[in-house]
Amino acid sequence: QLQLVESGGGLVQPGGSLRLSCAASGFTFDNYAIGWFRQAPGKEREGVSCISGSGGTTTYADSVKGRFTISRDNAKNTVYLQMNSLKPEDTAVYYCARARALYLCALRKYDGWGQGTQVTVSS
Fold it and tell me: Hey, CA dihedral for 91, 92, 96, 97, is it positive or negative?
């Protein structure tokens, strides 16, 4: 069955970097877009980034554009989120999620997601 497992979260100082990984199993990986969304305490869920099944097309929220980079390795069934120049407002639980198409990912119309990994940006 579908399984998405996030890793790579942690505590980092403002201006620092982290790389999140999302390991997938249980489905034909390159048939699906994969996205990252985040949720901070007391805030609504926010879509962060999406990548198409081939990896050729990506989307980003305005709040992370120029700082975050999404990529995927279909041979390893893994999606990455490189996060640079982190800010305190990036603090949240980050989830990776599956969508049947890139446009559905951008609309946050996911059909499965992982358990999340905590990212805390603080001095």
Answer: negative
